[in-house]
Automatic annotation (TrEMBL):
Record protein name field: Two component transcriptional regulator, LuxR family
Organism: Actinacidiphila glaucinigra
Cross-referenced InterPro entries: CheY-like_superfamily, NreC/VraR/RcsB-like_REC, Sig_transdc_resp-reg_C-effctor, Sig_transdc_resp-reg_receiver, Tscrpt_reg_LuxR_C, WalR-like
Highest taxon listed in the record's lineage: Bacteria
Pfam families listed in its UniProt record: GerE, Response_reg
Boundaries of every Response regulatory domain copy: 8-124
GO annotation terms (biological process): phosphorelay signal transduction system; regulation of DNA-templated transcription
Modification 4-aspartylphosphate, positions: D59
Lineage: Bacteria, Bacillati, Actinomycetota, Actinomycetes, Kitasatosporales
Domain HTH luxR-type: 150-215
GO function terms (MF aspect): DNA binding
PANTHER family associated with the record: TRANSCRIPTIONAL REGULATORY PROTEIN NARL-RELATED (PTHR43214:SF24), TWO-COMPONENT RESPONSE REGULATOR (PTHR43214)
Keywords (A to Z) from UniProt: DNA-binding, Phosphoprotein, Transcription, Transcription regulation
Length: 219
């Protein structure tokens, strides 16, 4: 198949070995080709600015910006770009977060060799993808919530607060965070104080534990 006719993919994962394995799976297909790679969410955004892309495959847990945070930004920057999430965690909440962030769905890394190619093709067709093993659990979960009259859980913090929370938990100073997000250190401090108050946390240690539980950083 001519290169121009192939789906051009950006692959973002902070583990080089994982990227290599996933790239082999994708490049082995006649209709798919990886044209750019990134090691974190911020780099993924830079690569998306620099390359002509059809699809971004983003790991959820990455430094600086998570895959979900990068997906939100890419959805704003490149509305026509299709997005698919990769994750270590089989968690239905990630599925809904992925959809909210503008992605077509997510694929656990444990079944990437089996389901990723079909997920990529579904994303390019603009169809939501949910890997087969999750369908039963998701439907059961949704039916149970509907029976109990529960809405889907709301997010505790805004997109901007989540970005700052993650960077604080990673050990960045207010100045460094301001530089990454193009805001002042004083604005970062104000957001940080709001986050602690909102979540009922006292210090950076508790904030870091929250970030791990929320899947923003890896333990």
């Amino acid at each position: 198949m001519p290169e121009a006719a192939k789906t051009r993919i950006l692959l973002a994962d902070d583990h080089a070995l994982v990227r290599r394995g996933v790239r082999m799976i994708l490049d082995d297909e006649p209709d798919l080709t990886v044209v750019a790679e990134a090691g974190d969410g911020a780099e993924a955004i830079e690569q998306a600015r620099a390359h002509e892309l059809d699809l971004a495959v983003l790991d959820i847990a990455m430094p600086r910006l998570t895959g979900l945070q990068a997906a939100r930004e890419l959805s704003r920057l490149r509305p026509g770009l299709r997005i698919l999430m990769l994750t270590m965690h089989d968690n239905e909440q990630f599925f809904f977060e992925a959809l909210r962030a503008g992605a077509s769905g997510y694929v656990p890394k444990s079944v990437a060799d089996r389901d990723l190619v079909e997920a990529c093709r579904a994303a390019v067709r603009d169809e939501p993808f949910i890997y087969p093993g999750a369908v039963t659990a998701l439907v059961r979960n949704l039916l149970e919530r509907a029976r109990q009259g529960e809405p889907l859980p709301a997010r505790a913090v805004t997109d901007r607060e989540e970005e700052i929370l993650k960077l604080v938990a990673e050990g960045h100073t207010s100045k460094e965070i301001g530089d990454i997000l193009f805001i002042s250190a004083k604005t970062v401090e104000r957001h940080r104080a709001n986050i602690l108050q909102k979540l009922g946390l006292r210090d950076r240690l508790e904030l870091t534990r929250y970030a791990i539980r929320a899947g923003l950083i890896e333990p």
